[in-house]
Amino acid sequence: MSRFTQAALLAIAAGFVFNLETTLVKAIEGVPLATMVLARSIGQLAWTLPALVRDPSLPRTGALPMQLFRGLLSVVSWYTYYLAFAGLPLATATVLSFTSVLFVTALAGPMLGEKVGWRRWSATLVGFGGVVAIVRPGDAGAVEIGLPLAASLFSALMGAVIMLTTKSLSRTERTGTIMFWIGVVSVSVSLPVALPGLAWPGWGNLGLLVLCGLCGPFAMQLWITGLRMVDASVLAPISYVRLVFAAATGVLLFAEVPDRWLAVGTALIVGSALYITRRESMLARRAQPGKPAAPSASSSGAGEKPNSR
After folding, report:
1. Global pTM?
2. Does position 197 have pLDDT exceeding 50, yes or no?
């Protein structure tokens, strides 16, 4: 089996597991949002424990303030991400989550000092045009403008900041160290928030919470492993298979039938994200002739979108 085939299968598996996580968020009943975020935080920390046993130096970091900031961004993102999926159709929330790459392009200049050309700015505006097509303000049959929609876009914005922060951290910090500190910070923040409403959820919900908490880090691991095999721009088109999983799950489990405007918005958002990814990959190759292109901020935005949480 070729490296590309292995990476493609890992990307598809990651998309399936990420969709399973959001399906569980939508399906769990009678459990406060804060409890679900706490479960996700504990799952994140638990996922790093085997690596910590193998390497006790894993928590060692030379960028503690940035690690704490990165962890705080993650837990805020999880709150808004889960709120969006609990209140919006699965396919709609999934499409809107992919706008992170558009926010990455907009933020790459002010945050990292990267030059963003007119082509990428044009693609970004087209992508946000896709958001307008999905929302359709003033249309009675459109997505309701309310807290879940705002949470979805804010989560995507947080995802973009997370990607750019992670890019900065990864220059000096190990992936395992970053993952560990995300777990530590998220548990420290989500536990006191969840405590007032914490109650026995029942065995069935407990099992779903455990599964939900482990889906996120498991999917991240699958995606990162795939990215180690091929360039992010190669995997980016495959990552959007998650939209197929979301649409199918929405129809089969929640009777959510996508309309034509969702299809139009999806085409604009995904098309612009793919263009930005390919463009950034091409520019990276030009900047480093003869070397494999390292994903830049915008290219890693589309390619590493699922890794943002």
Report:
1. 0.84
2. yes
